[in-house]
């Protein structure tokens, strides 16, 4: 048998032997990350099979129930809240951060915000907490040190600019920009309004916040070979380049 035929046979055998890993995703960007990771994963004996869910919590529940092998659809705090998981799900690597941003149509920099500016926050607990932590990071407010990852307005201990606050449902956040407010937009709400954090926000979360998404698996699987192979794919040079060229830092790399 000729060399080319032997090489082709080897590739076919390798593809047949690859361990199929079903990974939950909840965003188009999640699926695109897996596509970028596929070549390196295959070189390490893993074929990635994305499984789409409407939201991250559904992917977490499917992982806990054993219907998929892994998930990249949630960050670690959300993973800990998956109903019925009982601590059986673990994060083995970071993937990307979908950053919350602070947006304004009247100020080009946070320093330009006048005293008494109205700040619009997400009404739901996680979005509100991330927004307040981001404002604390930029010095707009000071939070109680015991507030944790989901601070509330009642946890504000200093507000030297006399900012006022309004909480709105996610679909009402972006329209509030027309009223001159400073608006805290979760990544998905910004994307739905055609906004990109790196281009349009005047403040955004760092890549290494606690809300960076993770590759999650069941605790019993954390040391099996396909997990390490999947991490190598997700942390490959091709994925690093993809994140930079596709998202221009609006989706951020925490590894």
From TrEMBL:
PANTHER family: D-METHIONINE-BINDING LIPOPROTEIN METQ, D-METHIONINE-BINDING LIPOPROTEIN METQ-RELATED
Species of provenance: Cupriavidus taiwanensis (strain DSM 17343 / BCRC 17206 / CCUG 44338 / CIP 107171 / LMG 19424 / R1) (Ralstonia taiwanensis (strain LMG 19424))
Lineage start: Bacteria, Pseudomonadati, Pseudomonadota, Betaproteobacteria, Burkholderiales
Membrane topology: Lipid-anchor
Top-level lineage group: Bacteria
InterPro entries from the UniProt entry: Lipoprotein_NlpA
Localisation per UniProt entry: Membrane
Keywords annotated in UniProt: Lipoprotein, Membrane, Palmitate, Signal
Homology family: Belongs to the NlpA lipoprotein family.
Name the record gives this protein: NLPA lipoprotein
Entry GO CC: membrane
């Amino acid at each position: 048998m000729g060399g080319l035929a032997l090489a082709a046979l080897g590739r076919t055998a390798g593809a047949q032997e690859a361990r199929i890993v079903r990974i939950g995703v909840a965003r188009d960007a999640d699926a695109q990350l897996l596509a970028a990771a596929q070549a390196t994963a295959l070189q390490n004996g893993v074929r990635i099979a994305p499984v789409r869910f409407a939201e991250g919590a559904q992917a977490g529940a499917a992982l806990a129930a054993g219907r998929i092998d892994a998930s990249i659809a949630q960050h670690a705090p959300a993973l800990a809240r998956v109903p019925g998981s009982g601590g059986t799900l673990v994060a083995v690597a970071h993937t990307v951060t979908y950053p919350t941003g602070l947006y304004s149509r009247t100020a080009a920099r946070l320093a330009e915000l006048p005293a008494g500016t109205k700040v619009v926050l997400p009404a739901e607990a996680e979005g509100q907490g991330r927004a307040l932590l981001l404002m604390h990071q930029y010095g707009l407010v000071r939070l109680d040190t015991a507030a944790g990852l989901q601070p509330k307005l009642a946890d504000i201990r200093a507000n030297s600019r006399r900012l006022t606050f309004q909480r709105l449902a996610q679909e009402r956040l972006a329209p509030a920009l027309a009223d001159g407010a400073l608006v805290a937009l979760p990544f998905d709400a910004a994307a739905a309004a055609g906004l990109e954090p790196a281009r349009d926000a005047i403040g955004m979360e760092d890549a290494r916040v606690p809300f960076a998404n993770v590759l999650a698996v069941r605790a019993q699987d954390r040391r099996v070979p396909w997990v390490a192979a999947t991490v190598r794919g997700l942390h490959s040079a091709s994925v690093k380049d993809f994140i930079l060229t596709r998202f221009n830092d609006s989706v951020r790399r925490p590894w």
